[in-house]
Every structure is written in structure tokens, then in C-alpha cells.
Amino acid sequence: MEELEISLIYPDKESLYRAGMGKDRVNVSRNVIDEIELSYILDLKNSLLTEFFTTDPKVVTYRQSVFTDMLENPELSKVLLKVMPILNDITELRRLSTDSGSTESYLYSITEIELYTSCMELLRDGLVPMRNNLKSTAFVALADRIKELTESEYYSELNKKLGELTSRVREIKSITVGVNLDAQLRPEHAGVLSINNEQFKSGDVIDKILRLSFKNDEYTCIASLVPFRKNQSENQQMALDNAFNSAINEVFKASVRSWRRIIQTYVLENTDFLIRLMPEIEFVVKGTELIRTLKGKGNVLCFPKMAPMAEKKFDVQEVYNPVVAMKVNDEIVTNEFTFDEKGMIYVLSGPNRGGKSVITCAIGLTFALAQLGLMVPASKALISPVDGIFTHFPTGSEDTIDKGRLGEECARLDAIFSEVTENSLVLLDESLSSTGSFEGSYIAGEVLTGFALARCRGIFSTHLHELGGSIESISEKAQAEGGVAIDTLVAGMEEGKRSFKIMRAKPDGKSYARDIACKYGLSLDHIVEKIKRNAANG
């Protein structure tokens, strides 16, 4: 694997190229990532999470091996965490540096070499010793490349030359300036007399006369030192800067400028290779931290088996919402979930706060994590990738002035229909809640039929319990026109308490209402009993 082909998240040049061209990407907006709360559990600073999704099972499998190495070799994370700030510094240095040929730009270049060598040493000391423990193609290739670079004769010579050059540069502590004065004692000409390896010290003319040590005390001034830029205009400061830089340039012209060519070829070429890896390094480090955190809280996780997109497989066992798992310390309720020929779209109903939104997001997160190459929140999973994830969740920022809340909801749903394909996933949570039950159920029926005809997969979590009674006829109508089947799920209640278990069954809105009424003491039997008791006490 050549240097430019080394990647922690793409197995070959072709997949890296396809990603760069925007192919195999998943249509997932930043808004969707926020709505399913993926950004809560996986937050990147140096890149957008949307850039890492893929529909290519080969890429997913490649990343799974990378995360396996990260999990089995904890030292890997420590090494990569140390490397990241150095790469950030190199990036910032390049941003500040110019090709003006100034002393400052030369010093930036020398600093970049120092950062590069320290980065290489960290990777060499961290990766090379564990080379035989690594199994992923990515880390094996990276370890071999680092070993090759750091053991090369050129790298050894680079370090030697760098030591000599930095020693000279670091020795500069002061400059001696000679100034000619005119008849009125005004500065007329100035020039640099010497570059020194000692700093000047403040002094006092009387003290110097008394000690009679002018010759042997050349670094003590006859007056106090004054801050260089104090009370100077910007033009004056620039003039002095230019004069000093010009002098230093002359002194280091032979040594420093010759290094510029080396920096622009060998060093920049190799730091480019490392800097390109920086977003990937952050991604695998943050992904590994997420997996370790969830496992540390006792949650099950697995790498999904990836099926071809056309098969539309999604069969997971003991699935749960990892965001909830991160936020609570209680035991997490898990569920079984599958999309199949009897139900590619589900209408999920049940009591308020019964787990409908939680499982809806959990399914979205499972697809997302799978297509990032990470472990998913389940004990077993078979998943076909989707080409897009679309959400329609309640929002507090509806454009109610122009359209009204219902109009805004419908506009957002219409926008999804403009992008959804048969390989997409659609998650609707309490959609059409801004209108009455009759109108909401009617529009919901139209929307569900539309998604069924689009042949996508989806979940419609809803409070419209009466919608459940018409799902069978809606599904039959859609299938007759070539659409996929629609089925129903219910969030369970046990003895008036939410079980957070999701069951494949027909909804019974009355039983939910009855259980809730009993829980809060508002069943008719309880009310009658209370009335009789009050009457007896009266």
C-alpha cells in the first residue's frame, strides 16, 4: 500500500476516490444527526460526521477491523490522542506561514520539521512495537510506513541537520545595532553589528563608571532596557522589524534558505500524508471512546453483518437506544426489530412516554452507526445499508407565521418525498400532531401510502391510535399498486405501567387509556368508590 493510499477508513484508492467524489455517501443532513442525537454521542471537532457515512459494505468491513484493533490494543488510542494536537499545530503553522522569504517564515518551516519529527517518533515508538498484534490492513500499513520512514537514511540525516540548524537559531539572544548620528544627534544611519548568543541587561551609567568595567561588561547597557514596541507607531515597528529580519536573513541565508527546498519536498510531502489522516484519526478515536463507554456501562454491542443494499435486510436482536444508555445508569430495556415482507413501514402507537420516540431514534442510530463502521447497540444484527436517512420530528421552530404549524409539517413531509428513494429510511415521530384526530389520521393515511409506494423503509410513531384500525386497508391498497407492506407496532403497557417493550401487534387505544386512567385513579370504578366513600363519611 503506497503512502497516499494509507487510510484508516477506506480500503483502497478506488473507495477513497469515490468518497472524494461524493459517491457511496449517505444522504444524512446535520439536522438529522442532531434529531436522532447522534451528535450527542459522537461529536467531531475537526470534520463533519456527514463525511464519514458510506453505503459500501466493503468500506464498513474495513472500518470494523480498524475498530477491532483499537479495542484490542488500548495503547493505540493513547498514541493517536498524542499525535492529534501535533498535527493541529502543523496545520495552524501552515496557515500562519507565508512564502515571503522572511525570517519568520523560515523559523515556521524549522518548527514544522521539529513537529513532524516529534510526530513520527510518537508513531514509531507507539505503533512499531505492537506491529505483530495488529490485524487490520490499515494499522499494519501505517506501522510499516512509519517504520520505513523513521529508519531511512534520509530521515536520520534530516534529524542531524535539524539539530545543527535549530542549535544555531536557538542561540540567537540579541542583536548589536550601530547608529550614526547627525550634527543634531538625530539617527542618520543604522546597521546590525553582530548577532549574539547572550541577552543584554539593564544598567546604569553611574554604576558602570564607578565599576570601570566598560570593556569587560559589554552586555550591560548604560541605561535601562526599554520595551521594543513601547510608544512606537505601527510604521516604526514595521521598519525595525524589517531591518532586523533583513540582518538575520543575511546571516542565515546559506543555511536556512537551502532548507526551504528540503521542507517543500520531503517534509511537506510526509506531513501532508499525516495531516490527511487527522480527521480519520479523530473519527476512529472518538468512535472507540463511544464503544468503550457503552460497554463500560454493561451494554451489549456487536459489529453488524452487512447485506447488499438491494436485499433491504434489517434484523436486530436486543436493540436499544445508545443515547439513553449514555444518560442513565438503570438497566436498559431492549427489543427485537425487523423489516420484512410483512412490514417495511411500521405505524408505532402506544401511551405517551412509552418509548415510541426512543425506539424510533434507536433504529435510526443503528443504521447510522452501522454505516459509519462502528459497533451497533444490539447483540446481533444483519443490516442492508440505506442511501439516506430522513426525519420528521417535532420542532419548536415551525414557520407558523406564513403557513401555520400544520402547513409547516406538511411542507417538511413534502420535502422528504422529493429526496426519498426505495433504499432510504424515513423516521416520523408524532407527525401531524398539530391538527385534529380526524384530519391527522386522513393526512397520515395519504403520507403512509406515499412512502409505501416509494418502497422505502420507515417508522411512523404516532399518538393517532385510531389510525391503527385503517392500516390494513391502507397497506392492501398500497401493495396493490406496487408498494411495500405497512404493519403496526405497539409500545407495551403492563398493569398500567409502561414496559418500553415494542410488540408487533394491532393497537388498542382504549386499553392504553384505561391503563393510564387506572394508574392515576380516574377509572370509573375508582371514581364511584371514592364518591360512595365520601358520601358515607359525610
Task: Return Rg in Å.
Answer: 34 Å
How many DSSP H or I helices?
17
Calculate the mean pLDDT score and round it: 82
- CATH architecture title of the largest domain: 3-Layer(aba) Sandwich
CATH topology of the largest domain: Rossmann fold
Please indicate the percent range of residues in DSSP E strands (runs of 2 or more).
Answer: 5-15%
Largest sheet: 6 strands, mixed
What's the order of the H and E elements? HHHHHHHHEEHHEEHEEHEEHEHEHEEHH
Distance between the amino and carboxyl termini: 90 Å
Quick one: CATH superfamily of the largest domain?
A: P-loop containing nucleotide triphosphate hydrolases
Q: How many separate domains?
A: 2
Q: What is the class of the largest domain in the CATH system?
A: Alpha Beta
**Structural class of the secondary structure composition?**
alpha/beta
* Count of individual beta strands: 12
- Envelope shape: elongated
